[in-house]
Design a protein that fits this description.
seven-stranded mixed sheet; alpha/beta; globular
């Protein structure tokens, strides 16, 4: 399996980057797009990197935040056939404080969207799973999540605002060559809980450490991850400073940036 980073917060090779995530995944017989960043940057970088967005067979939005699904309109224009899988909760209004961080709700009526509810079989050996409905996957809200993300509901003239339980977050699981590869956009439900639940051979995505202090608690989280027989390819919301801090305690982790391409 080959993974190419089309958009991420950082860049090592001069390609433009943005706060967000988009991965182009090539399995033995499928091409997948996992997340679409904030804008159409993923598509512009794909053209430079020789990755044809129109050839994508399956697209996935990991959760309902703008930095993972902001490029949805561009994808629908560039690819006329691939279904886009996202949680049935993805278009709920999401806020960080007063700032709206959700998806463009004008797109939710597209016939190309396939709304999932905890589990979906996308193809042979390719599935989407959430923490609360996956087989033998426990519900565990993260101690490492840290952010006061909010979900807003309208009820008559009133607006009820409640802490986000991230029920709109889902994980892409691919089985290939006897290995289980898990893709997580931001791991809002807790990277420790996710690693424990799936115990994959490789885990690709953000750890959501970027707001955590560089202290013993973060080292403890890194050591917990190191206890699994898993290779980690992390990025985006992990935070560069946090990654440098935990790297001595998590030797099987690599940081991936815009333009990187690697085999798993």
């Amino acid at each position: 399996m080959r993974v190419t980073v089309l958009a991420e917060n950082t860049s090592k090779n001069g390609l433009p980057c943005e706060h967000g995530l988009s991965l182009f995944i090539e399995t033995k017989d499928k091409r997948l797009l996992f997340d679409m960043g904030q804008t159409d940057l993923f598509a512009r970088n794909a053209a430079v990197l020789g990755k044809d967005i129109s050839s994508v067979d399956i697209a996935v939005i990991s959760h309902g935040h703008y930095d993972h699904g902001g490029g949805l309109s561009a994808f629908l224009e560039l690819n006329g056939t691939a279904p886009v899988y996202l949680s049935r909760y993805a278009f709920e209004p999401h806020f960080n404080g007063e700032r709206y961080i959700g998806l463009d709700t004008s797109l939710q009526g597209s016939s190309r969207l396939v709304f999932t509810d905890g589990f979906a079989q996308l193809a042979q050996d390719i599935s989407l799973v959430s923490l609360d409905t996956g087989k033998d996957v426990p519900v565990s809200m993260p101690s490492e999540g840290g952010e006061a993300m909010l979900r807003s509901f309208s009820c008559g003239d009133d607006t009820l605002t409640v802490p986000d339980d991230f029920r709109h977050e889902q994980y892409l699981l691919i089985r290939e060559n006897g290995r289980r590869i898990l893709f997580s956009g931001c791991s809002h439900r807790g990277i420790g809980a996710i690693a424990e639940a799936f115990r994959p051979d490789a885990l690709v995505g953000g750890f959501h450490f970027h707001r955590l202090a560089l202290n013993d608690e973060l080292i403890s989280l890194a050591r917990t991850l190191a206890g699994y027989d898993t290779d980690y390819y992390t990025c985006h919301c992990t935070g560069c400073g946090q990654f440098a801090f935990i790297k001595p305690h998590l030797e099987r982790a690599s940081y991936i940036s815009t333009g990187d391409s690697f085999d798993i």
